[in-house]
Amino acid sequence: MTASQAFVQACADLLGATYVLTDAHDTEPYLVDWRRRYRGSACAVLLPADTEQVAAIVRLACTHGVAIVPQGGNTGLAGGATPDSSGAQAVISLKRLNRIRGVDPHNNTITVEAGVVLAEIQARAEKEQRLFPLSLAAEGSCTIGGNLSTNAGGTGVLRYGNTRELCLGLEVVTAQGEIWDGLRGLRKDNTGYDLRDLFIGAEGTLGIITAAVMKLHPAPVARVTALAGLASPHAALDFLSMAQRHAGPLLTGFELMSDFSMRLVGRHFPQLRYPFGEPHAQTVLLELSDSESDAHARALFEWLMEEALEQGIVENAVVAESLAQSQAFWDLREHIPLAQAEEGLNIKHDIAVPISSIGRFIDETDAIIARAAPGARMVTFGHLGDGNLHYNVQAPEGVDAKRFLAEFQMPINTLVYDQVHRHHGSISAEHGLGQLKVDEAMHYKSPVEVRLMQAIKAALDPHNLMNPGKVVRWNAALDKENLA
Fold first, then answer.
1. In this predicted model, what pLDDT tens digit does every residue of 67-92 receive, in sequence order?
2. One fold for both 3-93 and 344-422?
3. Hey, is 456 helix, strand or coil?
4. Taking a C-beta distance cutoff of 8 angstroms, is the pair 422, 351 a contact?
5. Neighbours of 99 (CB within 10 A)
6. What does pTM read for this prediction?
7. What fold does the segment set 344-422 form as a domain?
8. b/e for 369-397, b at 16 or more Cβ within 10 A?
């Protein structure tokens, strides 16, 4: 019996055969990523029921030398939850860890297990007259454990921050199979290293998050949405500064969408009507969340738009008159990735640069790509308020998309990432590194930063059994030789 077979048998004894999947039909959904870009193989897919079972599985993995790939809702975009092709790794799905353990209204916190779906947390918060502000396209299927492991962003980062900022405490199974109970709902805890932040964004490479204490916020009384048409991303930055100056913390959304992004949505989803009669180089979607009243938020928005129009910052604007119209505005934004998929294969980038550099970055990089790949169409959209752009490249009109990607994907990636680096940005803003960008991250980070990451990995997971090959390149055997 091989080490993997012995491990699988021990897991069956621990969990029961029902919760140890080995049949190809049963394991298939767990072995391919959401974009269907990566397909792996596994000795088994394991479905523990609680934290103690997760810890017991990890101890068995240590005993048998089996690597583990944690998985939440499997909605990631960087291949971080997909095993390699060896068939020797095991996938641990956390979907059975799906309890909301409690809500503390006075502390404004909710304690949830890693497998709870994001939309369920939002709904429970609403029931308690609170807001859980993390919101993203996959919220009906992604889980909070995955959100934490990738430090997900979404549309509310401008006001509320990434998932990291929404988390107060964690419960984690370490690489040795111990359970760290850090479920403290404290906003102040100055007692040493911040272990919580080590595991958030680590994509399961240091340990497995099994539960978390998350912040809640008072539910807003009103939300008002508007669209504005502008001549350039530089004007959008001026508009952002004006909106922040006058609306302050009421401004909870500020999304940038290029003209071609809007035209793609109109082409493939004609039922989603662009509200302006003429095109604009850039469209901004804004949202205010007000604790006073709908009338107060609407009056502030209308005054803001009038000022921006008078100063020539904004070319056209419309404030949503109803919840249905507000949703229609958000539908325009949320259908951009779907419209891209309908248009054909494309080259995607999830990048971040300092907010003040956004205009220069777009101008410079658009020009560089136009010279390198004449006719390429730029689908630029994202969260302008936090500097996160989805800077995507569509094949020229009439050109075979597969051929375009085969010829241009690698050189365009290099051009874009070089530009990001030049502007002191990040090649991954909210999707994580996974296996998609791990090599690029090792290239663009400084040697000191890489060595620090490798040292953390070596200290917490010395046998490299926790999601190996993701986030950071490190060879446990080679490191041991170097240390000898």
1. 999 999 999 989 999 999 999 999 99
2. no
3. helix
4. no
5. 13
6. 0.92
7. Alpha-Beta Plaits (3.30.70)
8. beeebeebbbbbbbbbbbbbbbbbbbbee
